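REQUEST FORM: STRUCTURE PREDICTION
Request ID: SP-0412
Submitted by: Lab K.M.
Chain count: 1
Length (residues): 136
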Amino acid sequence: TLPLHTDPSVFKGKKPEAVLFPNGQSVRTTTWKSAVLAILQDCNADPTMHTYLMELRGKVLGRQRAILAASPEKMHAPLEIDKNLYMESYYDTASLLYVLKERVLDAVGYDYSGICVRLQPEQKREPAFGMDEMTL
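STATUS: Completed
RESULT:
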């Protein structure tokens, strides 16, 4: 289990199992996109944060697309946070978490310092078929 404020590169190559919120709520997640969506929905549940998120639509831009938008059009992998509120999620793990924290949550003033991500246990990888440790 690692705090969300951990450097995003630490999460690369790992899979989430659950997002743990400071109020004791736990949301089971099997992908980084579902983890990001759970965090954004928690943020959006606060009426003040919802207003800030809605105001950010079309103003927080990535290299090619808006990060937050009112519709999924022109997005490669939109996450629907709420009606008329979508976030682009077409990023690798480290970039997705960076965009979530630095470009969205920090911009609206959402405190994610108490949020943790429980990771799935790492599975030992078997050597490729026909190969042993000596040839790896």
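NOTES: The longest helix spans residues 93-108.
Reviewed by: T.R.
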